[in-house]
Amino acid sequence: MYRFNRIIAATALAGTAWCGAVQAQGTVEVLHWWTSGGEAKAVGELKNAFEERGGEWIDSPIAGGGGDAAMTALRARVVSGKPPTAVQLKGPGIQEWAEQGALNDVETVAGEENWDQVLPPALAGIMKYEGDYVAAPVNIHRVDWIWANPDVLEEAGVDAMPTTWAEFNAAADKVEAAGKIALAHGGQPWQDATIFEVVVLGVGGPEFFRDALVDLDQEALTSDTMVASFEQLRKLRGYVDPNFSGRDWNLATAMVMRGDAAFQIMGDWAKGEFLAAGKVPGEDFLCAAAPGDGFVLNSDSFTFFKVSGEERLQGQQVLASLIMSPGFQETFNLAKGSIPARTDVALDKFDMCAKRSHDDLVAAIEGDTLVPSMAHEMAVPRSVRGEFLDLVTEFFNSDMSAEDATQSLAEAVTRAQQ
Length: 418
Ligand code: GAL
What we know:
This protein has 2 domains: 4-141 and 298-356, D-Maltodextrin-Binding Protein, domain 2 (3-Layer(aba) Sandwich); 145-297 and 365-417, Periplasmic binding protein-like II (D-Maltodextrin-Binding Protein, domain 2). 53% of the residues lie in helices and 14% in strands. The chain contains 19 helices and 16 strands. It has helices at residues 9-21, 37-52, 68-79, 91-99, 107-112, 115-118, 121-127, 150-156, 165-177, 189-214, 218-221, 224-238, 249-258, 269-276, 310-323, 326-336, 352-367, 382-396, 402-417, and strands at residues 27-32, 56-61, 86-89, 103-104, 128-129, 132-133, 135-137, 139-142, 145-148, 181-183, 261-265, 286-289, 295-298, 301-305, 339-340, 370-372. The strands form 4 sheets. Strands 1, 2, 3, 4, 7 and 14 form a 6-stranded mixed sheet that branches. Strands 15-8-13-16 form a 4-stranded mixed sheet. The chain is globular. It starts with 8 loop residues before the first helix and ends with a helix. The model is unreliable at 1-23 (pLDDT under 50).
């Protein structure tokens, strides 16, 4: 049976041998969107490690959670014939750029380091185009988390983290009655889509999630379960404060940290913010899987665009090897809030939330309840994701009924596929 954390000793040896052969040099210009406190700390680890190997790092951060602004900047760079050397990209986006012939592969490094044997198959498949590795994964983020401030919960008389949406609503009502904001949220399309997909998982379960948000099955998209999901999203909208519009996700996390709000529903990059602020899980903040079975997968990875010049080509190979090195995977993920993409990195130094993530991931792989994130570009092409984001945001910011939202969503998805 597949075990996420089993060590395949031969792989580690092969990896070491390859690292020794790489010249510690090269230049990379890295386009990414990691600019919040926790994110910047994590990408700083990558920069430092690359520079320690003698490389030159040119930083190209494009602020904007979820990466939509970064993807727009990337297109402009490619159109102008000057792509960055390395780009934070994910899911079908990797395939889309590879299909256009824009990516170099890192197959030599991947082969010599046996990536196939240290990555979960579900992740390895996403990193490959026509059988060759064109991306190197840095982490596994889980999207379906609820974060909470324990003091706010205590003051409101909420004695446990909610395990169903009904419990969540009851807890949120108590928090509001105690005079605090129940749900810290930032009104940006990708954040709205994040809480939407978490609700879909909780209301419909992983199979429904897959049918509706991955396979885009019309029956699922038009079902009563989708109506019920929008109804719960409407409930959540009611728990958000009036100033949510346009707020960045990390500012929403800060509201929970400060005790202005009780909950945030967000992926575990939020944990990176808590940790960067010196907060301790289980004491200063709580983590719990959002209601429902399953695990919504989001993995960050880097791709290597077609560039010219020995230094840059060398930089791509060195960066790919570095990203997948066990030591780096540990350091980076301790800061980022995620867990290593490699299956053979010990989690001793990781906190209870990370260990929970790992255990739930193993269970989800075994139980076939692992689902890729729609909101975080792991599931569907960007064009389809765009339709989801537009509709969910419109729903969130209007009094559209759940029935109308369901119908409009199904139509929009059909249009995007034509
Ligand atoms: C996600 C990304 C995370 C985190 C988040 C907020 O899409 O995978 O690493 O950065 O956006 O910016």
